[in-house]
Amino acid sequence: MPPRKKRKVADSSAKEPAKKQKLTTAASKSTSSFKAKGKVKGKNGEVDKPVYTHWLMKSEPESRIENGIDMKFGFDDLKSCPDQTEHWDGVRNYQARNFLRDEIKEGHQTFFYHSNCKEPGIIGVCTIVRSGYHDHTQFDKSDAHYDSSSKPDNPKWYMVDVKYKAPLDRFVPLSELKRLHQDHVAKGGPLKNMALFTRARLSVQPVSQEEWDFIIELSKTSV
């Protein structure tokens, strides 16, 4: 799997948590957050390509030491950061990098997904507060994500800044999402093409508006 993105254990002396925010779907608000068709310039000219404003980003909530660094960074760690904000560093997959560099923008929202743990799944929602910029860890020899082939005048890797928004009404485990995905593939449904299953190895993934709304509503139901 691609290397994980967070290495910092948050400062427990950060600001008091903000009040819980209400999570909404497209049907309940006026917004431009949807999957639309946009013109993207390709090798042979402009091509139609989906434009996403919602994402899923994976991080590890449990301790795992890599090169002497604890890779743990869960949703509560983000909540404890100054201003409940942190950069999303360490992504070393080119497709995920392209999302961070080219497509994820300030104001977009992302699911925070707990990965590589006893019970993986979606725990909450974050807001992107800074669009893609150079990931400093690629130049840090002491960092687990150091890349000797990346140069300051031609950096390979990018990151964004994310801000804690709110937990889901309930944790939505991977096992439940997988069962629904399989059902939707067979019978039709919003999760049939979800990247969590069709591009499972990516640590940063696009989420369609339909998928987003379905999962938000799903989290409001009892198991």
Describe the model.
This protein is α+β, with helices and mostly antiparallel strands. The chain has a single domain (51-218), classed as ph1033 like domains (ph1033 like fold, Roll), CATH 3.10.590. Helix content is 19%, strand content 30%. It has 5 helices and 10 strands; from the N terminus they run E-E-E-E-E-H-E-H-E-E-E-H-H-E-H. It has a 6-stranded mixed β-sheet. A hairpin with a 6-residue loop joins strand 7 (109-114) and strand 8 (121-134). Residues 1-19 and 27-34 have low confidence and may be disordered.
User: What's the total number of strands?
Assistant: 10
Query: Reading side by side through the largest sheet, how are the strands ordered?
Result: 6-9-8-7-3-10
Shape: globular
Give the number of domains: 1
Strand content: 25-35%
Poorly predicted regions: 1-19, 27-34
Q: How can the largest sheet be summarized?
A: 6 strands, mixed
